[in-house]
Design brief:
Layout lengths: L1 H5 L7 E2 L2 E12 L9 E3 L1 E4 L13 E3 L12 E3 L4 E5 H11 L13 E4 L12 E4 L4 E7 L4 H8 L8 H8 L6 E7 L1 E4 L3 E6 L2 E2 L6
Parallel strand pairs: 7-8
Antiparallel strand pairs: 1-14, 2-3, 2-8, 2-13, 4-12, 5-6, 7-11, 9-10, 9-13, 10-11
Helix pairs in contact: 3-4
């Protein structure tokens, strides 16, 4: 067992931790607890449970199709309190789908950022530190689904198949989900710093 603990690949490549700067372009709240889409607001107050009154708020949540290892409806830790999107990536998705625009609120976004390259690809454990003191810990990327695609399709009733097209074209571009590490307020226009942790590609020990 000790050999496995100390044996490391000779070609292990480690990326040191670093920081990236961005800006908050939009914040969005949920008008009703059972509503998927969000609405633009000037500011959001976030607690350890997420956005008070939001359908994704809470210390725990029920498992669904994204967690096939649990029976559907199993109570589990809520690591998906907040949806964070990228202005640049939304533009790429819209171009790939051949639609004029894709708004954050259509797909349930809570915070839209600009300036962080490849936002959807930042690794888990990244800390998003906002100018006002709020800190969000990234759990990972948010896989696109047909449910969000259907919300987009409602805005383009003359186009068929957008619900399925979104899932195809938005992969690795649909933003991040995370949870509140340090409560606080987020405002449109404030600065944010992404603290990218040290990372490497895990490989089984041979």
């Amino acid at each position: 067992m000790a050999d496995h603990l100390v044996s490391l690949p000779d070609d292990l490549q480690v990326t040191r931790k670093f920081k990236l700067s961005g800006q908050v372009e939009g914040v969005f709240g949920t008008p009703a607890i059972d509503d998927f889409q969000t609405l633009p607001v000037d500011r959001l107050e976030l607690t350890f449970e997420g956005i008070p009154g939001d359908r994704h708020a809470g210390f725990t949540r029920k498992s669904g199709g994204r967690e096939p290892w649990y029976p559907r409806g199993t109570e589990m830790c809520n690591e998906r309190q907040i949806s964070i999107l990228s202005v640049e990536e939304l533009g790429i998705i819209a171009e790939r789908m051949e639609i004029p625009d894709l708004k954050s609120e259509w797909i349930g976004g809570n915070i839209t950022l600009s300036g962080v390259p490849n936002l959807s690809l930042v690794p888990p454990r990244t800390r998003l530190v906002f100018e006002g003191g709020l800190v969000i810990r990234v759990d990972g990327d948010n896989a696109p689904c047909r449910f969000a695609g259907a919300a987009i399709a409602k805005n383009y009733p003359d186009r068929d198949g957008l619900d399925l097209l979104f899932a195809q074209k938005a992969r690795r571009l649909r933003g991040l989900v995370g949870f509140i590490e340090k409560p606080g307020e987020v405002l449109v226009g404030e600065a944010v710093t992404a603290h990218i942790p040290e990372q490497w590609i895990y490989q089984p020990v041979s």
